[in-house]
Every structure is written in structure tokens, then in C-alpha cells.
Amino acid sequence: MPALLAAILALATVFAHAIEPVRPNTAAGVDRNLLGIYRELVETDTMQPAGDTTAAARAMAKHLLDAGFDPADVQVIEPYPQRGNLVARLRGTGELKALLLVAHLDVVPARKEDWSDGLDPAKLTERDGYFYGRGTIDDKAMGAIFVANLARMKREGFRPKRDIIVALTADEESGEHNGVGWLLGHRRAAIDAELALNEGGGGTWRDGVPFMHGVQVAEKMYQSYSLEATSPGGHSSLPERDNAIYDLARALDGIAALEFPARISDATRRYFSAVGATEAGSLVPAIASVGRGNPSDLELRAISTVPRFNAQLRTTCVATRIEGGHADNALPARARAVVNCRLLPGEDPRFVHAQLERAAGERVKVSPMNEAHASPPADLEAPAMRTIERVSRSMWPDVPVVPLMSAGATDGAELRNAGIAVYGVSGIFLEHGENRMHGRDERVPVRSFFEGAQFLDRLTRELAQGR
Question: What predicted TM-score, i.e. pTM, was given to this entire model?
């Protein structure tokens, strides 16, 4: 009888693994439920603006409760309808202050008709070595990995020196109810930590071979401006020289030609040093000069023709929206545009505003639409950075770890401003030049997803032990 029972249990185990198999070459250090958690999270509708992050938070909470978490340590906090956040805590010994793991639940909109045949952004589809679906990389991969890894740690009885807090939050992409901001303002104790891991970094492949692992240590400030031109209006059969649309067009021409000064920080210099060792082509000498911190004006101009390099060097501003007029047969009384700027850390928003006013001219009013919040960079020499480098080398021995400044905005800025050191790192590698975040056919390589899960598991355990 015992032998028969053992055989039945063995078959049950095989069957269970057949439902959501872990890839054989990535099984070590990966929770067997990860793929199912990932699928459930991707297929829970959290698309802005109508999606429901509360439903996603509850689904992820159930996985932690099923793993043995105390219900008192798993909270779904919903300050606004359908804008819920999951905050859960794996208890440690309390010898060190907590480690915070952050990922956002909301994703940008996507329509099935805009994607390739056979792909539905609301479904997780595996095809040709990739996982496709909205949020597969931004940011449900890290969310699912954090939940699966913590569930595994709980089942194993892992009790580190730090509490490990996971916060899966709402409205990072857009919306009025940013989860991280609300938690910091209303439930600071629930997520208070010494350091945090967040999105914003990641690795780069060349033809499937890792060559750089980026860690976000800083990010640009987000600042939008409204440009508005007005004129008396009238009947279109009697055109006037005073025309709001023409005034706005001239202002936008001026802003299109505006270039802010290059500023090379320590993180920027290290980034270009690492990139220079892997790039090929005519820009290599100029990249090396930036890496040394002494580029000529000619070299800066050459590098600035590449958008991803230009964004690392200077504040950028670009027109993103335009509207004007009120009828086909009427002269416009008003024309308006939005210019979105990404300010380098330390850039003075007053300087940027003044430069936009100068470029736009006197006939167009330039007004800030939000308040830019400075975000101090993380310490490049901190023990956490050394731990990230050590764990990265354990998986990818010859791949340099490179500090990055994100040109886009993440929740990391809110946390840094609250005094929590944030490092954007995922261990998830994408092919060089590929960026489908927010776009058509968003995807992540299957192999990379599982390797990222292993990396984040190792890194979380090391940081949680204070190593």
C-alpha cells in the first residue's frame, strides 16, 4: 500500500508540473508556480484607464496566503475604487531595516486589432521563444516574479535579517491615484525600508548573448508645459495676420530647434565607458571621450544624433499634443500644445521654463502643467550596488554592470525623495535596440524571463541578509 500511494503521489506531481511547466534549463531557483502567476497577472485587466488593479492585487495576495503568509501581513489597500495596491511582508529577524520590492500593476492601453495576427494583448501568448502580452515586460514580469519568489521563500521558512516587503501598486503609468505616492503619504510604515528594488534597469543582448546589465541609479524629472496662443478670431473668408495657429506653429518651430547644454555626471560617464567597450562604428572614439569626461563640442554633436545617447547627456523637450480652432470656417481664437520635458537630475526647472519662453516667443504663453520633483541619485558606492554586481557576475561572469539614468519616469523618484535608496534592476535581458514597452506586440524572451526570476531571487536573498 505505501508503494502504491507513493506511485500515485509521484504521478500527481508529474501532472501538476505538466500544467505549468518550468523550463528545464531554468528550473533551479524558480518557483514552479511562476508561470501560472505570470499568466494570471498579465490576463487580469489593469489597462489604463478602465482596468482594475484591485482585482490584480487580490489575485496576487491569494498566492501569498496560499503559501502560508499570515493574513495580517498581506494587505490589499484600495484608497480609490479599482485602484488597489498589494502590500505584503515576509517577516525577518528585524536585525536590519526592511527591503522593499516594488512593481506597478497598471499598464498602458492596447487594442487587439493593433497587434499582429494571433496575438491578443490581454492574453499571455508564448511564440517563437517569447512571451507576448501587454505588461509582459512593463511591469508585470517583475510583479509576478516578486510574488512567486516570496511565496517560495515562505514555504521554505526563509527568515532573513531584514523584513522583505512587496508593494504592487496602481497608477504608475497614468491616472490620479499613484499607489506609491499614496502609500508614502498615508501608510508610510507599511512600506518604509532602507532600500528598494524597482523597474528601470535591465540587461542587453547582442544576438542573444548578454553584453551589458544596466542598473537604474537615477532618473530624469518629468515636466510638461502648456503652450497657448490666442487671437481675436473671426470669419475664415476674411483672414487676419493675427492667427493663433500660426503663432503656435512658429513657437513649436523654435522649441524644435532648442538644445539644452550637455551635463556629464558620474553615472553618465560610467555608462558611456561601458557602452564604448561594446559599441562598434564611427562613434566609438566620441563615446570613449564622454566616458573619460572630456568630449569636444564636435564629439558631443555627433553623439547627440543618437536619441538614446542624447537623452543621457541633456534635458530634452518635445511637443506631444496639439489642438486649435473651433470650426472649419472660423479663424482660430485659441491654439494649444503640450511640450513634455525630461529634466536631468539637478537641472533647474526655472531655467528650462525660461529657455522655452525664449524659444516660443512673446506671442505664446508657456505655463508649467505640473511640479517637477528632484530625485537624488542612488549611491554608486553603496554596499547594495556591490551586492548587485556580485550576484550579476554569479550568473553572467563577463557582463559589466552599468549604472543608468532613466530617461523615462518611474516610481523610484517618489521613493528616493522619501529617503529610500532605490536601484532599478531586473536581470531581464532584451535584444539590443528592441523597445516594445507601451507599443505593439510587447514581449519578453522566455529564457530571459526565467533567468530574471533566478537573478531576483538570489539578489533579494542576499540583500535581505545584509550582504
Answer: 0.86
| String of DSSP letters for 352-418 | HHHHHHHHH-TTSEEEESS-----PPPPTTSHHHHHHHHHHHHHSTTPPEEEEEESS--THHHHHHT
Chain centre distance of CA 431: 17
Cβ neighbors of 227 (< 8 A, separation 6 or more) are 248, 251, 252, 255, 336, 337, 338, 339, 356, 360, 364, 365, 366
Amino acid at 181: G
Residue with cell 565607458: 273
Q: And the C-alpha cell for 189? A: 510604515
Cβ atoms within 10 Å of 299's Cβ, excluding its own: 17
Rounded-to-integer distance, Cα 453 and Cα 395, Å? 12
| 73-84 pLDDT, tens digit each | 999 999 999 999
> pLDDT tens for residues 320-334?
999 999 999 999 999
Per-residue pLDDT of 437-466, as tens digits, reads: 999 999 999 999 999 999 999 999 999 999
* Residues 6 or more apart whose Cβ sits within 8 Å of residue 321: 337, 338
Residue 338: how many CB atoms within 10 A of its CB?
15
- Does residue 10 register a pLDDT over 50? no
Rounded CA gap, 105 and 381, in Å? 31
Q: Which H or E element spans position 184?
A: helix 179-186
